[in-house]
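User: Fold this; tokens only.

Assistant: Input:
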Amino acid sequence: MTITHRKQRILFASVGRLSDLDDSQMFPIDFAKMKEAGIAAACPDFVAAKEAGKMVANMNRMPVMLIDGTPIGQIAVIKRILAKRLSLLGDADLEGAQCDMIQEHLQDIKKEYNDAKKEGKPEVVEEWFKTKLPEWMAKIEGALPGQSGFAVGSKLTMADTELYTIVTSFFDNLEGVAAAVAGCPKILKSVELVKALPGIVELMAIAEKNK
């Protein structure tokens, strides 16, 4: 499996299969250059791939992942096929639907956050973390149907890895996130379960080394 986006590493790492992922075609992005010089300066490899027709599957956007040689676009679609192949969609179709449900709930949160950031007012974003995010997380907490500390079902699923990602690395205000989930024991337990997985510990060590 070849990937051109770093987010899917979490799925492979969570099941101890990071070595199965070929990320040699992943595009390094210098976000410091994005604002002033655009995508051509921030990620020239992406521009080259687009010009070569390699990004057509996602309408010339990132990410695109080659799975058995077939290009697949749209991050939610990529996540789901990976979760299915890595046995991260639960034990039955209903648990798979619950995983999708949690992912869509989290996507709603991300959209509202990004909309708040687009207003360009720091005070709006600050207020969002104080009031809106705690409300969202309380609703997520109530929607989690899992057992034994897992978000869905009674074993690790994509719902756990998605919660881990949004709590530990999606937002740029980790203190605000910590405050928002402080009263959400199910979310906290799920995140801690993922954080302790050997593959995730290895992945975080690699990331720290490459800083």
